[in-house]
Amino acid sequence: MKKYLVIFVTALLISSCAEQINRTPVDALISTTAFQTVDDIEAGVVGVYTSLNFTNQVRHNAIFTDNVKIGTDNGGQALSLLNLQLDSQTNSFGIWSAQYNTANDVNRIIEEAELIEVEGSEEQERLDNLLAQCYLIRAYAHLEVLLYYSENIEDPSSAGVPYQSEVSVDAEPARLTTK
Questions:
Q1: What is the structure's pLDDT at 58?
Q2: Alpha helices of the chain — where are they, by DSSP H?
């Protein structure tokens, strides 16, 4: 009898947790429900514009070139950059991460915009304009990464950077050439 009671209680506990296991996140929007109209796409594009951050590039260029120098009281900040050592993710100069996050955000918008049914030519024109802005932002993000992380920007056969044109969690795009 005790064995049946344990099986019953276990089955009850597992079945009662189904709602808790399959929860959708409440702290972030899911792209399939976030982008349902052209207005939603426009809000997404505005969000991408507000998330663009040029501080990393300006700071990087100021330290990497001879615009600034180490102060007498420097505690070791930005010495790796001053020594021409680029770090893609772990410091405040996360140009690589920031630009690929931007490209990923834009790719999500593009992916969902293709599923929207528009009403009329005016709305279609508005959607086309927003998509053009998305393609431009994605190209800019990839150009920034290419400028900072390619081996030789002037040699068309030298290693460039991966081009991210779709949303994928496990994608490992190959490094393209600068051509």
A1: 73
A2: 2-16, 18-21, 31-34, 38-51, 55-64, 79-82, 95-113, 121-149
